[in-house]
Design brief:
Elements (H helix, E strand, L loop, with lengths): L5 E4 L5 H4 L6 H4 L5 H10 L6 E8 L2 E10 L12 E8 L8 H16 L5 E7 L3 H9 L3 E9 L2 E9 L7
Length: 167
């Protein structure tokens, strides 16, 4: 049974709140280390456009991700969307549905705080089968577009945000 997960907004200096979120060695190659993620967040000229979040269950942080918008969007994203980055669920918390819950949690945040945005997008490395399956079974759709970055060939996925997501 999955416990109810919630989002907690993090500051650019809250790395210690998520430092315990270790991944399996085979998953580490798919995401930037948390030190780098927070260093980039702190060095960003537009911190108001990048939003770090903790995924919390019963006062325990089980996951982390960053959403980006407007001028902070990556080059592969069309204007007017929000993108999801650096997503991880700590290895001790995986398999409980917390990863799948992020789609709904992020959609609710977007509907409430950015009601004009109707799409959440992300990239996932083609070799990252576990993450790809998690995204697809939680409502993301493969756009058919790809992008190549330092992690390799990425599939671009999109999730259409319904008005009911914000309720």
């Amino acid at each position: 049974m999955t416990m109810h997960a919630t989002l907690k907004t993090l500051s650019l200096f809250d790395r210690s709140r998520v430092a315990h979120l270790k991944l399996e060695p085979e998953q580490e190659r798919f995401v930037d280390p948390l030190d780098l993620v927070f260093s980039e967040l702190q060095g960003n000229a537009r911190p108001d456009l990048e939003h770090p979040f903790a995924i919390v269950v019963r006062h325990q942080t089980v996951g982390f991700f960053v959403m980006r918008e407007k001028a902070a969007l990556p080059e592969w994203a069309p204007p007017g969307v929000i993108t999801l980055h650096s997503f991880r669920v700590g290895r001790g918390y995986q398999g409980n549905g917390y990863g799948k819950s992020v789609t709904g949690l992020a959609s609710q945040w977007i509907s409430k705080n950015r009601p004009c945005v109707s799409r959440l997008m992300l990239t996932v490395e083609v070799d990252n089968i576990m993450a790809r399956n998690t995204y697809l079974t939680s409502g993301f759709v493969d756009t058919g577009a790809t992008y190549f970055d330092k992690f390799g060939l990425q599939n671009i996925l999109a999730y259409e945000i319904d008005l009911v997501d914000g309720i």
